[in-house]
Specification:
Radius of gyration: 20 Å
Distance between the termini: 32 Å
Shape: globular
Order of helices and strands: HHHHHHEHEEEEEEEHHHHHHH
Largest sheet: 8 strands, mixed
């Protein structure tokens, strides 16, 4: 089973109640970025792996993302970005990189995004790589643009992959305030506007060798992709669990009406528990089964969409308000469909 209690200095429930719950509507309606929540988690030890076995580290991160997504999937997505960046650095062979970035990332002093949407599609021949890197003494010069990178601001950093004539593809991490980098905020999305998403333009950006994650990016991504995608699964779990709880509360108030609705919260709950057990099994094997992770990710999207739509039906007119929790969860769920690897991309991977 998943670890249900995270033994840190300040309880996760307290941090969620003080640093996240009061800002959820502002996140959804005003594109507020819950930076303080993320930094508090890091400060209290929730990003650190310590000396825990790998299985326990995966469990800890998955529960943290799910518990956050129960309240706000936008912020849970930012949390996923942070863990993705940490995962890249943890698994790099570049010791100077690890010493430079890991201490700051794991205490929340540095927050980071993951600019891998384009390269992941590129590796499946869906898109061409947008960035190019030219080898120079002590590093690379990078040019190009990424349309959207999340969980970044001027004092953040993010990972990226660029083509290189000498190495094929390289992967690195770059501070957002580096010379030659231009950021432009992206909003106007159906949801997730509080995810601190920016387009990023590289204009002769220098990437020092100590910021190189891998000189063979495609092979490196293959080695960490199961973790990368596994940490997306609890985004859907959190939203689904929240919808189940919401529907149960609504039904208790008016059982005479709700008992006749075709989809009941218990129907969703049975599927949720089944998928959660499948994920637990994967965690025990350190999430090494790529085919099962792809199948799980797809199944969780399907269940999340079913849950948010059922929640809208159970909520009735109250859910039709743009500011309602049910409406927000519906919009957030559709982001999960388009989070890289997208449903279309996952279906391609499943059949390739």
């Amino acid at each position: 089973m998943l670890i249900e209690n995270l033994d840190e200095k300040v309880s996760l429930i307290d941090i969620i109640q003080t640093e996240l719950v009061p800002y959820v509507k502002k996140i959804d309606q005003e594109a507020h970025y819950a930076k303080n929540y993320l930094m508090k988690l890091g400060e209290e030890g929730y990003f650190s792996s310590g000396n825990m076995p790998k299985e326990n580290v995966i469990q800890k991160r998955i529960i943290l993302i799910e518990e956050t997504a129960k309240v706000c999937m936008t912020t849970a997505f930012c949390l996923w970005c942070q863990f993705a960046a940490i995962t890249y650095i943890e698994n790099s062979d570049n010791e100077k990189l690890r010493q430079k970035f890991l201490p700051k990332l794991t205490v929340g002093e540095l927050l980071a995004g993951t600019g891998l949407s384009n390269p992941l599609k590129s590796f499946s021949n869906i898109e061409k790589l947008h960035l190019k890197a030219e080898k120079v003494p002590n590093g690379f010069i990078v040019n190009g643009a990424l349309p959207a990178v999340s969980n970044i601001c001027d004092d953040h950093a993010f990972a990226f992959i660029a083509s290189s004539e000498q190495y094929g593809t390289i992967m690195g991490i770059v501070p957002c305030n580096v010379d030659g980098m231009k950021l432009k905020q992206r909003t106007g999305y159906l949801a997730l506007n509080g995810s601190a998403t920016y387009s990023c333009s590289f204009q002769n950006v220098f990437l020092p060798d100590e910021n190189i994650i891998s000189l063979n990016a495609q092979e490196f991504v293959q080695s960490i992709r199961t973790l990368f995608v596994s940490y997306q699964i609890p985004l859907g779990f959190g939203v689904t669990a929240s919808c189940i709880e919401s529907m149960k509360k609504i039904a208790d108030k008016n059982k005479k009406v709700h008992q006749y609705l075709r989809i009941q919260p218990t129907d969703i709950e049975v599927q949720y528990e089944h998928l959660r057990k499948r994920l637990c099994k994967q965690i025990r094997s350190k999430c090494n089964d790529w085919n099962e992770i792809v199948q799980l990710r797809l199944a969780v999207v399907d269940l999340t969409l079913l849950a948010v739509q059922a929640n809208m039906i159970h909520s009735g007119g109250a859910g039709y308000l743009q500011s309602s929790s049910a409406s927000r969860k519906l919009r957030e769920a559709y982001f999960l469909v388009n989070l890289t690897p997208t449903v279309k991309h996952l279906e391609l991977l499943k059949h390739s």
